[in-house]
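In this supplementary section we document a worked example of the pipeline. Step one takes a protein sequence of length 80 as its only input; no multiple sequence alignment statistics are reported here. Step two produces a three-dimensional model, which step three serialises into structure tokens for compact storage. The input and output of this example are shown verbatim.
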Amino acid sequence: MKTPSIKALVETYSLAELQEAEVALLEEHTPAITIEGKDEGEQLTHVLAAIYIKTQMETKGIPFNQGLRDFSQRVRKSIS
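The serialised model returned by step three reads:
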């Protein structure tokens, strides 16, 4: 998971575009947007993070850094 890649997605694409990219990756298609990542798994992680963060920014009015922190904590909890 690379923060600059996630930030670029959040700043560049709409929530709808990110969700369409998620579906494309899940269906093993090439997304219509550019997503950095060494493979499809990393690209999907970046898109999922961007969707979560962008949603939090729009609904709760939090800044990107707080959204990223929240997402990271959520991932850590799911792993442990």
